[in-house]
Design goal:
126 residues, mainly alpha, two-stranded antiparallel ribbon, two-stranded antiparallel sheet, 40% helix, rod-shaped
């Protein structure tokens, strides 16, 4: 006896099989949306160490000039500012690389011009 014959003997494709198929297909339709959500909320926007002196003046690191940033943030090899290190004492006149750097003691400041809120900017990992 074949499976199709057994299925015909017990009543064929009925409401129960249709309900079971519907319940199994529902997660398959929603699961791709869950995977795509990560693409939209998990971007890491440009960030730098939070600078206490600018925060106390209610200025943004992003609105201050590169001269102000150069006195607080060291340069990387590619010429951009470091996003994970800050000078232990701010450079004022001598912009040499001899000053000691430390890992961000006060957390990070994120650029909110492109993304207003992302997972990496909302979760405080400092």
């Amino acid at each position: 006896m074949r499976f199709e014959e057994i299925l015909d003997d017990i009543g064929g494709f009925s409401k129960f099989q249709f309900l079971l198929l519907s319940i199994l297909c529902l997660p398959r339709a929603i699961l791709p949306l869950h995977f795509l959500l990560h693409n939209f909320i998990s971007a890491t926007p440009p960030h730098h160490c939070s600078l206490r002196i600018l925060d106390s003046r209610n200025e943004s690191v992003w609105s201050s000039g590169p001269e102000t940033l150069a006195s607080w943030l060291p340069y990387q090899d590619d010429g951009s500012f470091s996003s994970c290190r800050v000078y232990s004492n701010p450079q004022t006149r001598n912009l040499s690389q001899d000053n000691r750097t430390v890992i961000c003691p006060d957390g990070w400041t994120y650029d909110k011009s492109q993304f207003s809120s992302t997972t990496s900017s909302e979760v405080k990992l400092d």
